[in-house]
Design brief:
Catalyzes the reversible conversion of ribose-5-phosphate to ribulose 5-phosphate. The protein is an alpha/beta fold and 228 residues long. Helices cover 29% and strands 29% of the residues. The protein has two domains: 4-126 and 209-227, 3-Layer(aba) Sandwich (Rossmann fold); 136-206, Alpha-Beta Plaits, CATH 3.30.70.260.
Length: 228
């Protein structure tokens, strides 16, 4: 029986194989991407590829630069050819919940810019509906976080909690808080996202809807590739 780490590792090679010379590459965040970054760096070195990377978090940027990858600011590029990232949940329509690592705003900026967006997950992340196993992260402004949270809770009796890092609030790379929302099957992701994104104080939601091109899944039986 393979553990989730082994299942994640299985997905990496199929993603790295999609990288081509002269690409602007969006590099995601999380445990799967930490397995991916050294593989990308290895391929760049072995094949002398000219790859420019943009990263969705300070941590990914740090790891990539440690491996001598060419990383630039998102404002220095006009487009992204390919973005590779993980996800916390994937539904049958390839819609996602992301933000377990707290980088959802930067992830969404880069993943939406990408001409092609590929997601790497282990089979435990495949769900029947978004919110089945994972809470929806919502990035909110620190100034009025409590008022914003109460408005979120007013939508269909949503249960929320401010994410903590030990005994202090978790702070995103953008300097904001994350509110984790317990969802239920009845909640329509499109409607709830629209409600949230119009609240003053919400920067972005962890719903990634209609942007995934391919999901590479590590399963006990091998790698499964699901295309949009």
């Amino acid at each position: 029986m393979k553990d989730s780490q082994e299942l994640k590792r299985m997905t990496v090679d199929d993603a790295v194989a999609q990288i081509t010379d002269n690409m602007i590459l969006g590099i995601g965040t999380g445990s799967t991407i930490e397995l991916l970054i050294p593989k990308i760096a290895e391929r760049i070195k072995d094949e002398q590829l000219n790859i420019t990377g943009v990263c969705t978090s300070n941590k990914s940027e740090y790891l990539a630069k440690q491996l001598n990858m060419n990383i630039v600011d998102i404002n220095d590029v006009s487009h992204v050819d390919l973005a590779i990232d993980g996800a916390d949940e994937v539904d049958p329509q390839l819609n996602l919940v992301k933000g377990g690592g707290g980088a959802l705003f930067r992830e969404k900026v880069i993943d939406e810019m990408a001409a092609r967006f590929v997601v790497l997950v282990d089979e435990g992340k495949m769900v029947d509906y978004l919110g089945q196993n994972f809470k929806l992260p919502v990035e909110v402004d620190k100034f009025n976080w409590l008022h914003t949270t109460k408005k979120i809770e007013s939508y269909g009796k949503i249960q929320t909690e401010r994410r903590m890092n030990g005994d202090v609030p978790f702070i995103t790379d953008n300097g904001n808080y994350i509110i984790d929302c317990q969802l239920n099957e009845k909640i329509d992701p499109y409607e709830f996202h629209e409600f949230l994104i119009h609240l003053t104080g919400v920067l972005e939601t962890g719903y990634f809807l209609d942007i995934t091109d391919q999901v590479i899944v590590g399963t006990q039986q091998g790698v499964q590739i699901i295309n949009k």
